[in-house]
Amino acid sequence: MSEPNVFLLPDLGEGLTEAELVNWLVAVGDEIRVDQPIAEVETAKSLVEVPSPYAGTVAILHGEPGQTLDVGKPLISVLPAGAVTDAPAVAETSAETAKEAVAPSSEAAANTYREEEKAGSGNVLIGYGTSGGHGPTRRTRARRDGIAPAKPASLTQPAAAELRPAVSSPLVRRIAREGGVDLSSLKGTGAAGLIMRRDVEAALAGQRSATAPAPLATQPGAATLGEPAASYADIDSRTGLAIATRTPVKGVRKVVAANMSRSRSEIPEATVWVDVDATALVETRADLKKRNPDHTPGLLAFIARFVTSGLKRFPELNTRFQDAADGETKEIVGFDGINLGFAAQTDRGLVVPSIRNAEKLSARELDAEIRRLSKLARDGKAAPAELGGGTFTLNNYGVFGVDGSAAIINYPEVAILGVGRIIDRPWVVDGELAVRKVVELTLVFDHRVCDGGTAGGFLRHVADAIENPASALADL
C-alpha cells in the first residue's frame, strides 16, 4: 500500500513556535487538492488558514479543536490520490504516525518539512506563494449540519502492535511526568487514540480526589448560605484564599508577556512628557470634515504624519540596539525607512500592526492604512508580516479615557510615543486664561541610543506640529 504523506504544522513566521487549532475544514475520508485550506489555526498574531501541500485522501487529523500544536509536529496525514489501502495497513500507519508524534527528532522534522516542500505546493500559508501542482478534489461523504462524518474504525483505533502510548504533544508528556501519571495506563480520547491533555488532567483530578484531606471547616456564615467548603487543594498557600480561576497564559497574552518582560529587563528606559494645546488641530480637522466629510483623516493619522516627520529629523529614535556580528560588541542599527506600528486593542489582546514605509504616506493615506490594519487585527485576519517589523510605535491610549502612561517599549524598538485623551482644560493664551483642547504626549525611549536632548527635541517637534498644524502640514 502507499504510505500517507504526513504534513507537519509549518513555520508560521515571526518566531512563532505554536498555534491553537481552531477548526478543521476537512474530515477523515475527504479527498483534497493541493493548496486547499485544511484547518484554521490561531497564532499569537492572527487567525490563519493552513493549506495542504498534498492532494489525496485525508487519513488522520492530528489534533482536535482547542488543542495547542507545536510547529514541526504532525498536523494531517494524506494518502496519495488513487492509493490502494487495506484496514490493517492503515492502522499500522496510524500507529507509526502516532509514535512519531511522541518525540520526532528536530532533524527528522526538518527533513520531512523539506520533502513536503518538494513534493507538495510549498504554500506554507495562504498568500505566501506556491511552487507545486494541483490535484483533484471532491468530498466522498456529505457533511450534514457541520457534523463531520463518522471515522472508519481502522482510522480511529490505535494498532494493537503499538509499543508506546500515543501522546499528542510534549506538553502532555510534561504534565504527566510532573504529576506522576503513567501514560501507558491511560486510554486516549483523541484521534487515533492520542492521549490528550484532558486525559492527563482527568487522571490528575482522580489522584487529588483520592488523596486530598477532608474539607476545611467553612467560614462563619458559609453553612447558612449552603455553599460547600473549599478543599485543601483549592486554597492558595500564600494568601489562604480560595482560588477562583486559573487562566493559561497563551496566544497573544503569552507573547505580550514575554515581549514586555524582555523590554523591561534589557532596556534602560527614560520618559519625557508634555501637555499640548491641540485646539488648532481639532479645529483644522473639523473644517476639513465640513468640506470633505467622507475623506477626512482622523486625528491619529495627523499625529502619525507628525511622528514620521519627527523621526526623519531625529533618526536615532528609529533604530535598533543589538549585538554586533562579532558577538562581543554592540551596535545601533538605523533604517532607511519607517515602519510605524500602532497599538490596537482586540478581543484577543493587544497587537501592534505596522504601516510599511509610513514616511512616504500622506495623512489621508496613513488614515486608510490605520483603518485597514485595525479591522484586520480585530477580525484576527492580519498576516504575520502585518503584525511585526515595526521600527517605532504610536500608542493612542486616550481611547481608554486616560491622560497619560509610561508605556513599555515594544521590543526590539527603542521608543514609543503615547497619546492621551483630548480634553477641555484651562490654558493661558496671550496672557489670558482660556479653555483649550489639551492632550498629553509621553515619549519613552531607550537611553542607550540617545540622550534627553534628542528625545526632548523629537517630542517638541511633534507637539509644535499639533499646535500649528497648518504650517506643519504645509512643510511636509
Automatic annotation (TrEMBL):
Keywords assigned by UniProt? Answer: Acyltransferase, Lipoyl, Pyruvate, Transferase
Cofactor(s), names only, from the UniProt record: (R)-lipoate
One example GO MF annotation? lipoic acid binding
Q: Does the keyword Cytoplasm apply?
A: no
The source's superkingdom equals Bacteria
Q: Which family does it belong to?
A: Belongs to the 2-oxoacid dehydrogenase family.
Instruction: Give the protein name, as stated in the record.
Output: Dihydrolipoamide acetyltransferase component of pyruvate dehydrogenase complex
Give the taxonomic lineage as stored in the record.
Answer: Bacteria, Bacillati, Actinomycetota, Actinomycetes, Micrococcales
